[in-house]
Amino acid sequence: MLTMDDHSVIGGPENGVHTGARPARRVRLWPLLAAGLALTACQPPVPQVQIGKRVEVIAHEGGRGLNLGDSLAAFQSALDLGVDVLDLDIVPGKAQGADELVGYQRPAPLVWGDLTASASKCNGKYVGQPLKDLTFAQVFTMVCDKASPSFPDQKAVSGNKIALLQQVFNLVNRRSKFTFDIQIHTVPNDPSSSTPEQATEAVLLESKRDHREGQIRVKSFDWRNLDLIRQQNPKVTLIAMYDERTFFSGSPWLGSVDYAAVGGDPVKAAQRIGASILSPCYTTAGCAGPTPPGPGSPLLEKALVDRAHAAGLKVIPWTVNDEKAMSDLVDLGVDGIVTDYPDRLRKVLKAKGIDVPDPYKPPVAKTLEKNPPGL
User: Fold this and answer.
1) Based on CB atoms within 10 Å of each CB, which residue in 28, 83, 112, 281 is the most buried?
2) What Gene3D superfamilies does the annotation carry (predicted)?
3) What pLDDT, in 10s, does the model give residues 53-108?
């Protein structure tokens, strides 16, 4: 597979040096070649961007178009289908002592995409209260099994409870080459939101405790979280999410990034925050609605993809559910696609002759015995 760091793009004896009966001409070319190599050595390293690799199939909330979003059933279904990445949301619960349902002290990392458990999704005493103020024992009393009318094919999961990050981790062996994209949900200036310090602590503590640091990537619209993750564990891959609601001059979402200093350029902004992956809304029409834009929405510009690649960043747009848009984005050169319908993306990739991930196969019992039991 050709990569941007392939020596053939730099130059060598096979590029510009003739073989045959005229060695004198060959000798005269070496000074030019040496000068060219010297100039190359003074330039920044060539970005390590792979060309022609497989496009990542990323199951948003486990594939909420097919199953109840952020449920253990959805994540298991995605694994059975075959995806590269499980994309899940995290909000931290209340920092607590020895909770009878958890067993050790920590802020509970809850797999949930909202700051509260709303009545449209859940039933119980604590519906509508900020999750940051609830222990996991309190959260566990709620039943969140209502299917979303926005996704008519979504299967309800009777009796579903909000899960812990540990429970999702337990679905995949820690030694496997698998990726969890963890989206940290915090909202600047919202009293219902936890602080970035609380949220990043919840994610990093659980990832370290369960030896998953090599399997996670952290993403967020609130780039204060990315700043903190970079400071506390620079080995964790960061994904810079943004759209028209967060990326603007004076935005409180951009963390340490000065919008004016980067000229309003999301590529430069992602580099400044230390991200390896740029994750824009997939359409220039914007993603401000409650559900992803419909078919026919104008796609992000290829120039953005090319500039990001030239800067050494991957590009993974969200949340793409239309097959035509998926196909066109693949043609633009994106590195992965976040979707509520991983089955559709697999279909599109297969039609283009692109390999898709196999269903996840649990390891043999001998390996499992070395892992701590799940909840």
Assistant:
1) 83
2) Phosphatidylinositol (PI) phosphodiesterase
3) 789 999 999 999 999 999 999 999 999 999 999 999 999 998 765 455 555 466 78
